[in-house]
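Structure ticket #2291
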Amino acid sequence: MYLGLRIFFHFYLNICFINKMSLEQDFNIAAEEVKKLSKKPSDKDLLKLYGLYKQSTLGTNNEPKPSIFNPTTYSKWNVWYENRMLSKNMAKKKYVELVQELKTKYGYE
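Resolution: structure written out below.
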């Protein structure tokens, strides 16, 4: 019984580690691919990318809320804040999925 548990946990931990590394690699590849879209994405799509990227790399937005009179900074802060409930890994997964959608939508070189 003990040996069986050891083998199970060994494979379980390896699978979790491999999946995490694969996600990290997929995220890094997607971050490079998004730069090679044939057309510039809409502002709405760019904001989605920004919010997921920030959540993926820095985690929860703890920055003070900027002034509404600076619409660019406010929009970026807000879209990052909207992703606050996502873990870094879930944000990375959503980022990769969004990049795949944008490659279809805007074309890819």
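Closing remark: The domain at 2-106 is CATH 1.20.80.10 (Acyl-CoA Binding Protein).
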